[in-house]
# Entry
Amino acid sequence: MFLLGLFSLLGAMFDLPMKELTSYLPLEDEINEALCGEENSYSRYLDLTNFFESGDWDNLDFLLGELELDPVMVAKAIMSPPAGQTASSRSPVLPDQNAALNRSQHAALMPQ
# Structure
C-alpha cells in the first residue's frame, strides 16, 4: 500500500501521464489500473488517502464503513512517520484543517 501511494505521485513528479509512467513499471495490472484512475480494490485505498489528506470527512467516513476499517487505525497509519523518520520531522496538521473538523470527527481521526 505504501508503494501504491508513493507511485500515485509519479505523474506530478515527472509531469507525464500516469498511463505512460506505469508502462515502465513492473506492477500488477490491477495496481497499474488503479494508478491510472480505474475503479478497483486498490483505487478505493487511494481514495481513502485522498479523502483524508483533503479533509473530505464525509466521503472518508463512508469509505471507512464500506471497507470496514477502524478510523483511528487508519489515521495512525497515515499520520505515523515512515521507518527511520521521527514524528517531529513531519509537517504538522495545519490549524485551519483542524478547525474544519467537528469534535467527534477530530477525536475519531487523530492518533492517540
